[in-house]
Amino acid sequence: MAIVKETEELTLKLTPMLLPEAMVESITEAKNAPSVTVEQAINPQANFTSGVGTKSVVLYPGESNELLIQLVNESNNIYYFDTISIEGDLSHNWYTSRLEGQILGSKRKIEGVVRFEIPLDFFETQEGWYRDKTLQLDYWGKINLHFSLLENEDDPIPQTFPLLKSADFNLYIRPRSLYLKFLPSLYQEVDFIGRFLKIFETTFEPCVQQFKQLCYYLNPLTAPEAMLDFLAHWVGWIRSPYISIERQRYLIRQAITIYRWRGTKKGLRFYIHLYTGLPLDEEKEKEADKHIMIQDSFGRGLITGETPLGEGSVLGGGKPYHFIVHLRSQFPNQIHEDLIRQIIETEKPAFCTYDLYID
Q1: Which residues lie closer than 8 Å to 82 by C-beta, 6 or more apart?
Q2: Within 10 A of 146 (CB to CB), how many other CB atoms are there?
Q3: What does the buried/exposed string (b/e) look like for 80-96 if buried means 16 or more CB atoms within 10 Å of the residue's CB?
Q4: Is residue 343 assigned to a domain?
Q5: Which of 131, 244, 326, 340 could hold 293 in an S-S bridge, CB 3.0 to 4.6 Å?
């Protein structure tokens, strides 16, 4: 078993890179702690050190904080950095460490950093809960730097047993409170007030966010599926169970447009386009090249003085108020004939007749 000796020739300094906005005190010791004076509340950074040689790191869920490590060699010796380790009751998944360089010469310093970060859903998960259903928010840790004495900088072989330099720190996990900005600066600097307001923020903020996103709930294209029945009833639309949710969203959104053009070719063609997904092909001039064709079939019939008599003469003419719907499908089983007939019966005038052809 190797013997590790604590050396006094090296000075280890810990400096948090992100200072807390409020004076942070230990929750577990808050009952026995003295009351906070006005001077301490105004200048919380003066009391940021809780204990001699102990630095405090404040973490907010989803945000990172770094602890700067400075190791100063005041002696004439040369040291070789071996490893860095962290012990305490905090999780190993919350931090990563690194040190810039491995050789620490005489009258020089070496720097490193420990980066802390906790999950965004820390308070929602059970990671920090005790068995008695209480949540741990205060943690302690110790940074250990392991060194060895060298004969010179060109000889990396250690000449003595390992040396150790340690420093303690506290880790405080706190929730971010949006409501602190509505208070005077004096109250913003008290940790307890921030944690107290977080209780109300957790209750009311989800409702506030829903109000901010209300426009997306009223849009059929972005609304939750549970809202579609309400939106369909709002515009008098009957949902069909035979088509996909995505296609129903487009139908509900365009319901007013369909109503506006009901009884016309344009309205029927637009309805079939939304229902089946067939392209409108408005840019094509020939009807035979289109995927949705609607044609009138009745003629003028026999008119005295204008219609010549012969083998091609027809008495009466075509069916009055009759039209033909011709659909050309892009994919197999894309068109449901019964549903198409139901659409035509809904959209056409009551006195009209029609023929349906599907390729």
Answers
A1: 146, 147, 148, 162
A2: 17
A3: bbeeeebebebeeebbe
A4: yes
A5: 326
157 and 267 in a single domain? The answer is no
Please state the domain count of the chain.
2
E-assigned strand segments in the chain:
5-6, 10-16, 55-59, 64-73, 78-88, 95-99, 103-104, 109-117, 138-150, 163-173, 292-296, 322-327, 353-358
| Model pTM score | 0.50
Closest among 33, 63, 51 to 190, alpha carbons compared: 33
| Unique residue bearing structure tokens 């071996």 | 82
| CA Rg value for the chain | 39
- Domain limits at 65? 5-174
Per-residue pLDDT of 255-306, as tens digits, reads 888 888 888 888 888 888 888 878 877 666 555 557 888 887 765 555 666 6
Cβ 64 vs Cβ 94: under 8 Å? no
Q: Is residue 189 part of a domain?
A: no
User: Using the 8-state DSSP alphabet, how is residue 190 labeled?
Assistant: B
